[in-house]
Amino acid sequence: MLGGPVESSSSLRRRQFLAGAAGLTAGAFGVQRSAASPEDWSFQPLFPFANLAHAQAWQRAYASRRHEPWHLSPELTAVAFSQEYLGFSEINKVAGQSVSQGDARVAVGLTLPGGRVSSAAIVRLVRYGSGSNAPWEVVGTDDTTLTFDRPADGATVGSPVKIAATVAGVDEYLHAEARTLGAGQPLGTYCCQPAGSGANPWSLTVPFQANSGQVITVVVHTGGHVALTERFAVRGVRAG
User: Residue 188: in which H helix or E strand, if any?
Assistant: First the structure.
């Protein structure tokens, strides 16, 4: 019998992610940019921190022992959001990024059979808290070819939540989930809404169970041509 502790599957996935996600290096860490004031937010904190107190606790841990420095990289945070929180294991590349002060957009994606990296979503992040080591927090996605009309960011929703938007593409089958931090499984799921050629409006509903005021990530995704997930979009809402 081999000695030493057995590494859990979640810690193994995190270690593999930190080692290779998007080919990024520690050189991306520690770049000092202005943080957004949470009091001025119209966003919902989606990942990796559930609230400002959790982000501040990480800041103290980082200051004392350099704990989990990936929180200082918007690129690594965006890939972790896609893989670890949403469960899209194939979304493991960064296709592009734009960082300005305390706001960032990171295009995350997958490698196509020919080797090109295809963008699946543009993840929006803001720095959460204050100070030079304020971590990055995912607050949503920018719509591209998979767009939300409802719910709006920050909306208060009941169950089932109605999702309406538009998708461009052919032979698409849309899946949807309602998720929250700390839950091992989605709060609710929907499968599957067919969508045809061109830019087509669609609507579906996702039942869920959550406490009043709880932050919920509503995610819609499609794929099946070359990977299970090829495009996705999210909205941050609160349970009514």
Answer: strand 188-195
| Helix (H), strand (E) at residue 236 | strand 231-239
HSE-CB for 42 with a 13 A CA cutoff: 3
Helices (H), 21-72: 52-65
Dmax (CA) of the chain: 58
DSSP string, 95-157: EEEEEETTEEEEEEEEE-TTSPEEEEEEEEEEEBSSSTTPPEEEEEEE-SSEEEEESPTT-EE
The one-digit pLDDT tens for each residue of the chain (240 residues) are 333 333 334 443 444 444 444 333 333 333 334 454 444 456 899 999 999 999 999 999 999 988 999 999 999 999 999 999 999 999 999 999 999 889 999 999 998 888 889 899 999 999 999 998 999 999 999 988 888 889 999 999 999 999 987 887 666 788 999 999 999 899 999 998 876 655 667 889 999 999 999 999 999 998 777 778 889 999 999 999
Structure pTM? 0.83
Order across the sheet with 199-206: list the strands: 146-150, 161-168, 199-206
Which token pair is 2?
A: 């081999």
| CATH class for the region spanning 143-240 | mainly beta
CA 17 to chain centre: 15
Give the start-to-end residue ranges of the domains of the chain: 43-142, 143-240
Instruction: Compute the distance between CA of residue 15 and CA of residue 219 in angstroms, rounded to an integer.
Output: 25
Nearest-5° angle of CA 237, CA 239, CA 240?
120
